[in-house]
Specification:
mainly beta; Immunoglobulin-like; 2 domains; about 10% helix
């Protein structure tokens, strides 16, 4: 093959590719700033959420997985149904992004046009109570659903101080008034876990010192023991201000490995840190969700 022929072929190919690019219309875009949650409070508790990532579908076709907020390009210029699946960070770790199976898909109809940007505000709902069991403590009544544990000498109370309440009229507060303050509280509810089913803990919290979350395990052989799960580090921003955070914890992955599990309880413990002048540990919307 002559050099002239090769040169002509290369020029023709470049011209063809260039022509294709010129004829290809610019994509349309769908901007997704965030995903909100709609809940039936009586059934599911608070709609508090921390959704960090999203799976975006065009109908049933997966377009991609993105960190929010995101501007998603589309090359399909027909009308489409944009479906969003909310993703969460297990333990708050960005390396542990998971589908949150207790949220339904959101759906938004869009008519795509080249070079046009649309904005959608997806709203997801919790799945039906026919598919999952919901237990929650929102500290909105005169009492709460926790009982004091052994050797605990500091109470868990309901604070109605507006500076300490996350939402509604009350939040839970561990009152650590002396240097020897130690508070331990367990759920009065004893939870049964259906093996190999998804189960999660949700919790909102604000604290200027560490506190701890464990599972109290009751096995069928009558053994009872504590399984340490997570240490909550202080929620203090770069300006030294306290802020509320939210955490999701995958309980199912922990419980699946327990042989002869009969039931479990939640346990929160706080030992006053004497290097902190005014210890603050607040919790709200403690929620356990188990798939049926």
């Amino acid at each position: 093959m002559s050099k002239i022929y090769i040169l002509l072929l290369s020029v023709s190919l470049i011209a063809f590719i260039s022509s294709c690019k010129k004829n290809q219309p610019a994509p349309s875009y769908v901007y997704i700033p965030e995903i909100r949650v709609n809940s039936n409070y009586a059934q599911h508790g608070s709609n508090s959420s921390k959704i960090t990532n999203v799976k975006v579908y065009n109908g049933n076709q997966l377009i991609g997985v993105y960190e929010l907020p995101i501007n998603v390009p589309f090359i399909d210029f027909s009308q489409s149904k944009i479906r969003c699946l909310a993703l969460i960070e297990n333990y708050g770790f960005s390396s542990q992004i998971q589908d949150y199976v207790f949220y339904e898909f959101s759906e938004n109809d869009i008519f795509h046009e080249s070079n046009k940007q649309d904005t959608i505000h997806p709203v997801v709902s919790y799945i039906s109570t026919s598919s999952a069991d919901y237990w929650y403590e929102d500290f909105e009544s005169f009492g709460h659903s926790f009982v004091q544990g052994q050797n605990s000498n500091a109470p868990l109370v309901i604070t109605e101080n507006s500076n300490e309440v996350y939402e509604g009229s009350g939040s839970g507060k561990f009152e650590l008034l002396t240097d020897s303050s130690y508070s331990k509280y367990l759920t009065e509810e004893e939870f049964v876990y259906p093996s190999n089913k998804p189960a999660y803990l949700e919790i909102d919290y604000q604290n200027n010192q560490e506190f701890f979350f464990s599972l109290i395990i009751d096995a069928e052989n009558q053994a009872r023991y504590k399984m340490p799960v997570y240490q909550f580090n202080p929620t203090i921003d770069s300006n030294g201000q306290l802020y509320w955070n939210k955490l999701y914890i995958d309980l199912g992955s922990l419980l699946n490995g327990i042989v002869d599990l009969e039931k479990f309880e939640l346990c929160f413990e706080v030992q006053r840190n004497t290097s902190v002048s005014n210890s603050v540990v607040l919790i709200d919307n403690v929620k356990v969700i188990r798939a049926k």
